[in-house]
Structure formats: C-alpha cells, structure tokens
Structure to design on (410 residues):
C-alpha cells in the first residue's frame, strides 16, 4: 500500500475522493487515523477515521459542538471575524451541555415515534403522487422527482404547515439547500428571512389554534419541556435543516444500493418485512451523512496516536467508521444483509444522536417499497459507474438517479 505521504493535503476535496472515498479512507485508517487536512481556501482541520476514535470524538466533551467556538477557530485561521446568525446559536445541534440538555428535552418530547407513525399512513399516497407527477412530466430521475421533494413535504406535514403553503415552503427550503454559503445573489439570505417570518407567523397562529403537529406540541409544552419563542423557532429551523439533505441522501443511497445489488433486491422485494433490517446494513454500507458536524477541541486531546492542539477543527468520518474492519471484520466494503444488526454510526453517537432517525427510516422505507411494488422491473438507466456525486462535507449529494421504470404492476 502506498503511504499516506503520497496523498495530497487536499485529499478530502478531490474528485477521486468524492466519487469513491473508501480506498483513501482504508489507507488513512491503516496509516494515519487522525490526519491533517486542508480545505482549498487554506483552513486546517483534523480528520478522524477509525471507528473507536470516531465514537470518542462524537461523545467526549473535549470535542465541542459550540458553533460560536467553531466560527471563532475558523475566523482566526482566515484572519477575519465571522458572524454567527442568532438562529444558529439556539439550535440544539450547535450547542454543548448545559445549553443542549433542555433544547434536546423539549424537541424529543414533541418529536416522538408516535407522531411519525401518525404521519406515515399518508406517505404512500404522497410518494405515489410524486411518482405520477414525474411520469406525467416525462421525468425519470428518482433524485429530483422523489428523493428531494419527499423529505420537504413530510417535514412540512410534521410541523403542521398547511397544504396551501407547501409550494412556498418548498421554494424556500430548496433555496436554502441548493444555494451555497457565499450566496452571490443574496437569494439565500432573503429566502431564509422569509421562511423565518413565515415560521414566526405560523407559530403565532398555532399559539391561538393548536393542531396535532410538532410545532403546536413545542409551543404548548409545559414545565421543563417548554422552550422560549426563539428556541422554538430555532428548533423548527433545526428540524428542517437537519432532515432535508440527509433524508434525500438516505433515500438515494437505499435505491442506489438495491438497484445495483440484485441479490439484496430480490430478497427484499419478495418479502418487504425484511426491509427495515436490510436498511440498517445499507446505512452502514453507504452512510448518507459522510462526516458529522465539525467539532472544536476545547483543550489539547490525544487521539489515534497524535495530540490535536486546542481550538482545532475536527472532521469525524462516519463513513470511514462504518467500513472499519476492526468492527466489521468480514469484507467491510461489501453489502452483506446477513451481518446481523450492524452497530453503524450513521445517525451519530452520544448526546447529539439524530433525533429524526425514526422518521428518516420510515420515510425511506415507504418510498422504496412503493417504487418496487408499483414498478417491479425498475432499473438504473445508466451504468452504475456513471452515477456522479457532488463534493460535500456532511452529505455527498447524488447529481441524479435516472431509472427506467418499466411496466407498472397490474
Ligand atoms: C426527518 C429527518 C431528520 C431529522 C428531522 C433530523 C434531525 C436531527 C437533529 C435535530 C439532530 C441534532 C440532535 C442533537 O443535537 O441533539 C440530528 C443529528 C444528526 N443526524 Fe439527523 N435528522 C434527520 C435525518 C437524518 C438522516 C437521514 C441521517 C443520516 C442517516 C442523519 C444523521 C444525523 C447525524 C449523524 C447527527 C449527529 C450530528 C453530529 O453529532 O454531528 N439525520 N438530526
């Protein structure tokens, strides 16, 4: 094996890595499990790739998720002060305890598996409508036709956004997802403001007329589960930003895996009750979230044989941990539905463990099941080697997922 010395310090931002990260990650795990990496604009960070080190970095309080500290470290390296938007500083994914504890308590109280079960009944129809719309328009891209809109629609339902507002909601959330942080035209800032105003208005309406939805549950919670108005708004934003791209990536990776693994597909389509267990191995095999949100060291920390200094940015590779042979000894780079319930870290680990995991799994299950039930012969329209990914630090978006639907089931 070639030494990691031969890897460019920008390895994480190369197309080779974006399209197929696994050989590079295997090399890093073997030779340099905590490796220095540099972004093209010169920001230094540390990449953690071994399973045990990943779990440590995700759960050890010396690795902070405080976004103000993260922006501080970033700003010091770039030589300028970076402003953090107020809404971001109130979000549970962006804070450490003790601030994190009540925010998590409030959101978990409102975001229950029971609430997801209630929504789930309507999802087959939502999926069918999206597929029908795609077919009517002559489309065949499962990514833009299904995997992208489905999470937005279901999150709108979860929050109690009235059906008549979905089109506006879809436009705002799509902008927030597709326009990059530099926002050259200012559209992202404008749509973010409009969405924020819309949510404030929705919160005011639900204060007067509560419904059976997550936002109403947050607003009307009592005692230690009650959040302030700012925290409620930020939590609403957090659910939307945490659940969109991630669930799109999960739906895409589940379809991609099944459309390229005939044995697994056959097994699942002949007995859909196998799907939930199979999805756990698919989550391990193709982690929808490739790296966790970045951490910052609060003091020098020894990990994987190196000392990471204080105030350094740490990137935790979930997809690498999920392919670590010391935990998944039997051909970790291959799909194996008989692996048992693999202890993957696809939804994180520790206090920031994903609060939306049950919803993401249920949504993916419904989407996959409806497509294979309605179109038993569905197949990829291109060779798997032609599927392209865009670079990304947290998810690695698929450019498109073109399929041939084939004859509908009678
Ligand atoms: C409806 C869909 C989803 C929602 C609403 C959602 C929401 C959230 C929220 C609120 C957090 C922060 C929890 C905290 O700080 O205590 C979180 C964390 C996380 N979520 Fe999700 N999520 C969704 C889907 C997904 C999917 C599909 C994945 C990947 C398979 C994923 C992976 C993660 C990970 C890895 C973290 C931990 C982040 C970290 O510690 O850096 N999420 N999610």
């Amino acid at each position: 094996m070639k030494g990691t010395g031969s890897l460019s310090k920008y390895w994480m931002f190369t197309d080779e890595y974006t399209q197929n990260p696994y050989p590079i990650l295997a090399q890093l795990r073997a030779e340099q499990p905590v490796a220095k990496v540099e972004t093209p604009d010169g920001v230094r960070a540390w990449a953690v790739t071994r399973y045990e080190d990943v779990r440590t970095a995700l759960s050890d309080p010396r690795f902070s998720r405080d976004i103000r500290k993260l922006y501080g470290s970033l700003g010091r390296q770039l030589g300028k002060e970076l402003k953090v938007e107020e809404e971001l500083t109130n979000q549970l994914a962006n804070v450490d305890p003790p601030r994190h504890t009540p925010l998590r308590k409030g959101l978990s109280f409102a975001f229950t598996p029971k609430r997801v079960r209630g929504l789930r009944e309507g999802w087959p129809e939502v999926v069918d409508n999206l597929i029908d719309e795609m077919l009517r328009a002559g489309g065949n891209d499962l990514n833009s036709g299904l995997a992208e809109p489905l999470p937005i629609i279901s999150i709108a339902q979860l929050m109690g956004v009235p059906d008549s507002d979905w089109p506006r909601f879809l436009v705002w959330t799509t902008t927030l997802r597709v326009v990059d942080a530099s926002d050259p035209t200012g559209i992202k800032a404008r749509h973010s403001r409009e969405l924020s105003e819309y949510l404030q208005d929705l919160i005011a309406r639900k204060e007067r007329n509560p419904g059976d939805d997550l936002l109403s549950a947050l607003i009307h919670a009592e005692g230690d589960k009650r959040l302030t108005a700012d925290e409620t708004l930020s939590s609403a934003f957090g659910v939307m930003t945490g659940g969109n791209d991630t669930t799109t990536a999960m739906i895409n990776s589940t379809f991609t895996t099944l459309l390229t693994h005939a044995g697994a597909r056959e097994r699942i389509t002949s007995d859909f009750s196998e799907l939930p267990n199979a999805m756990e191995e698919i989550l391990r095999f193709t982690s929808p979230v490739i790296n966790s949100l970045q951490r910052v060291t609060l003091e020098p920390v020894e990990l994987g044989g190196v000392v990471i200094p204080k105030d350094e940015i740490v990137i935790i590779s979930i997809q690498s941990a999920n392919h670590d042979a010391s935990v998944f000894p039997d051909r970790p780079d291959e799909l194996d539905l008989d692996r048992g319930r693999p202890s993957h870290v696809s939804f994180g680990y520790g206090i920031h463990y994903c609060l939306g995991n049950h919803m993401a799994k249920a949504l993916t299950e419904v989407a996959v099941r409806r497509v294979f039930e309605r179109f038993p012969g569905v197949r990829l329209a291109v060779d798997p080697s032609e599927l392209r990914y865009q670079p990304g630090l947290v998810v690695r978006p698929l450019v498109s997922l073109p399929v041939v639907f084939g004859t509908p089931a009678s």
